[in-house]
Amino acid sequence: MSKITNIQGTFTLHNGVEMPYLGLGVYLSKDGQEVTNAVKWALDAGYRHVDTASIYNNEEGVGAGIRASSVPREEVFLVSKVWNSDQGYDSALKAFDASLERLGTDYLDLYLIHWPVKGKYKETWKALERLYAEKRIRSIGVSNFMQHHLEDLLNEAEVVPMVNQMEFHPYLVQQSLIDYCRVKGIQYEAWSPMMQGHIFKDPAFQRLAGKYNKTIAQIVLRWDLQKGVITIPKSAKKERILSNADLFDFELSPEDMEYLDKLDKGQRFGPDPDNFDF
């Protein structure tokens, strides 16, 4: 596994593309000034990876933030996702074009299927494979796909997904899914690494934060990276965006990594990929 060295460090996807292992998530960041500022602050602070989605309704603001920053577009790893109501072959192609237009760019670095919509995701994947073949996306992947969804997809896929973005935190490790993805060459990525704020209530995290003289968020994000999991903490506050990236002057011991792994209780704070209705 690559060494965790700095804010612009990367993990290499199975197609050779370098994906920065720390990114800015913009879920629930309001379109307009709020998300534009967040993206600009992050990029100016050294982040090189921004993760949005069409359903977040803030792609325009994300694009504006990239243009307002001091960083050229080709140095930014830009991710978006196709929403459930746009799944299917033709509709996914249209949704991709619409996302590009809102973002004000002519390509994406990674495009994900947002949820495994039954009866739709295979056709959607064919659309992503086509966009990938046309070099309009540098890498393609999925989000919220359990092992059985991946197995089903891989029965017919020509391209193995480069990434699987999952709810991931110490209460929901899903180690067997991480292991399966590793065997298949699929990079694991975390959404909701802070358990929607619940990490700040658990004394276990407070104890480790004290031990390493770091914030609770920094402890959990460092755990993500040391597990080889890409992570995209969300914040619209400048000081939090900077603090979330201050992960490279310490390392969690093997004992503390194991301790965090053992907090796993299979607990979700977001929807269940096997049982969602949107």
TrEMBL record:
The record marks 81 as: Lowers pKa of active site Tyr. It comes from Lentiprolixibacter aurantiacus. Residues 30-264 form the NADP-dependent oxidoreductase domain. Pfam families: Aldo_ket_red. Signal peptide: none annotated. Keywords: NADP, Oxidoreductase. It comes from the Bacteria. This is Aldo/keto reductase.
